[in-house]
Every structure is written in structure tokens, then in C-alpha cells.
Amino acid sequence: MFPEIARDDIFRLETERLWLRWPRTADVEAFCLLAGDPEVATSTARIPHPYEPSDAEAFIRAARAENGSGSGLCLALTLKRQPNEAIGVIGLHGSAPRAPAMLGFWLGRPYWGQGLMSEAVGAFVDLAFGLTSIERIVSSVLPSNAASLRVHEAMGFIHTGRGLFPAPARGGEVEVEMLELRRGAIPTTFASRRPRLKST
């Protein structure tokens, strides 16, 4: 799905305030602290709580393998002034040819309410449509996660219904809002802010 430029761990995506880069072993402590926050973990389907170093290590290995194969792209969010300190994660995971790709993200609670996730999602989705041939991105959000729903709606995602989603970290399936974004449907306020790529 993703071309060679994104398959090297020196790849970075730049926004106004953020660097998005490959996750690395040095992120384990930050992931445990931030993703281990129950308010973050329980707003997702896949982050277990408690979140142990072994969970972070397994996630990082899987993300790097997926990035290296090009079957998806998972990046750690960092502030430009602190590029070595991860504050969240965003990822797009591929599936069968011509099927939609699945978007997921989380942000550490100290960084909520600053528009950082909207900034990251806007650049990341624009990148995905620019580098790949995917036509649709889908996402599933817990109905109680109002902040995530606002981010999706601002990006132009439309609601396609409610359904059950596998949530191994929550002990089974959970009911989610299902959303979809089609190529060409990104609001101009986001699409005009072209992200900048760094591969060296």
C-alpha cells in the first residue's frame, strides 16, 4: 500500500507543530505512561489496561514490521521542540485490494484540547491519499469519545452507521460509530496545508 519512501525508519512527516515519525524502542516509557492512562486506554478498542512495557514493545515491533512491509503506516506523534518524546500514535492499516484502509489514533491526555490531533490527522490522511491508491479510509469510534468524533467530522468523515467492533482490550465486542472518508472529500482548510515529508 505505501511506497518505498515511507518504508524506511528515517521517514518523517512534518506539520506546523509536530513531527510524525516511526515508533522506536526508546518510546516504550512514554507509551506506557500515556497509553497506560485509563482515560486514554478505555477510549480505544485495542489498548489494554494496565499497559505494560511488554505491551509497548510488542506494539512497536508490530508497527515497525508493518511500516517496513508497506502494508500500513503507523507513526508516533512528537512535538517539534521535543522530537524524541512521543505523545501519541496514528496509524493506517491496509486490507484486501480495493478495500478501505482503517484509521486509528490516540493522544496523551496532557496534550488534549490543543488541536494537535486534528493537525496530525489532517496531514496524515492527506499523505495517505497522496502516496497510495486507496479510495476510502474508514474508522470506528466509541460513541462516548466526543473528542475523536469531532476530529473525524472536522476532517470530512461521514457517519455510516453503528455496529459492533472487535475490542480485545475491552473483553469482547463494543458498539462503535462507523465513519468513512472518500478520496477528494477532505475539507479545503486541511487539504491546502500540504504536509512536508522528510526521508533524510
UniProtKB/TrEMBL annotation:
Q: Identify a single GO molecular function assigned to this protein.
A: acyltransferase activity, transferring groups other than amino-acyl groups
Keywords from UniProt, A to Z, are: Acyltransferase, Transferase
Q: Which InterPro entries match?
A: Acyl_CoA_acyltransferase (IPR016181), GNAT_dom (IPR000182), N-acetyltransferase (IPR051531)
Q: Name one Pfam family in it.
A: Acetyltransf_3
On whether Acyltransferase is a keyword of this UniProt record, the answer is: yes
The residues forming the signal peptide are none
Residues in N-acetyltransferase domain copies: 31-183
Domain of life of the source: Bacteria
Q: Which family does it belong to?
A: Belongs to the acetyltransferase family. RimJ subfamily.
Name by which UniProt lists this protein = N-acetyltransferase
